[in-house]
Amino acid sequence: MKEDDSDQNRNIQKILEMVFDLVTSFTKILSSCEEAENMKTMEFYIMLYIGMKGSKKMSELAEIFSTTKSNVTLLVNGLEKKRYIRRKRSKKDRRVVEICLTAKGEKIYSKTLESFVQLIKHIVKLIPTDDLQIISEGFFKMVQIFSNAKNENPEEYRLK
Fold first, then answer.
1. In degrees to the nearest 10, what's the CA dihedral of 120, 126, 130, 135?
2. pLDDT tens for the 160 residues of the chain, in order
3. Rounded Cα distance, 114 and 14, in Å
4. Cα gap 96→116, rounded to integer Å
5. Cβ neighbours of residue 40 under 8 Å, at least 6 residues apart?
6. Nearest Cα to 104, choosing from 29, 30, 51?
7. Residue 68 phi/psi, 5° resolution?
8. Distance CA 100, CA 103 (A)
9. 65: helix, coil or strand?
10. Global pTM?
């Protein structure tokens, strides 16, 4: 039984290392344009998220990135100072302020998306179709598990 735990722990550590390596490699590649290189990693992630998902409230960003509203405010202030994002009043409720990309932010997001598409096209050519199917299914399952965990019982999965 103890050997099984040891094997499982080694596999878990290996998965963590691979995910970390993948995220850091993607971050380096995706932030290769000059403007993105001048951003903090979390600023870059916030900008990408808004580019993908559209305007968001500060509280939504804090929840998505598991940080405080005051930390998001600091990050958004930095992005706003660099003119990548702007604050705007919600059309539905004038009391609500949403964060959206500026034209400059859209340009960086588009460059990043283009780089990502080129990268994935290149990677897809290097991996056999059967392996790609397995990788896709594995990613899909992991995203589903993490999404369900976050919605159903977030405390169970929180680092202690």
1. -40
2. 456 788 888 988 998 898 888 888 777 776 666 777 778 889 989 999 999 999 999 999 999 998 999 999 999 999 999 999 999 988 888 888 899 999 999 999 998 888 888 888 988 899 999 999 998 898 889 888 877 776 666 566 555 5
3. 30
4. 33
5. 75, 78
6. 51
7. -85, 160
8. 10
9. coil
10. 0.75
Q: What gap in Å lies between CA 113 and CA 26, rounded to an integer?
A: 12
Residue 108 structure tokens: 């960086």
Q: Note the helical H segments in the chain.
A: 2-30, 34-37, 41-53, 58-64, 69-81, 103-126, 129-152, 154-157
Count CA atoms within 13 Å of residue 60 on its CB side.
13
- The C-alpha atoms of residue 27 and residue 36 are separated, in whole angstroms, by 10
Distance, in Å, from the CA atom of 106 to the CA atom of 92, rounded to the nearest integer, reads: 23
Closest to 73 (Cα-Cα) out of 51, 57, 88, 90: 57
82, 124 contact by CB (below 8 A): no
Q: Are 54 and 47 in contact (CB under 8 A)?
A: no
Radius of gyration of the chain (CA): 19
- Does residue 80 come out as left (phi exceeding 0), alpha (psi in the -120 to 50 range) or beta? alpha
Q: Would you tell me how many other CB atoms lie within 10 Å of the CB of residue 155?
A: 7
